[in-house]
Amino acid sequence: MFRSLKHTYAQLIDDTKGVTLVEASTLCEDVRKVLGSGHHTRTDESKVVGTILARRALDKGIKLVSFDRGGYLYHGRVRALADAAREGGLEF
Question: What's CA 50's distance to the chain center, in Å?
Answer without folding.
Answer: 3
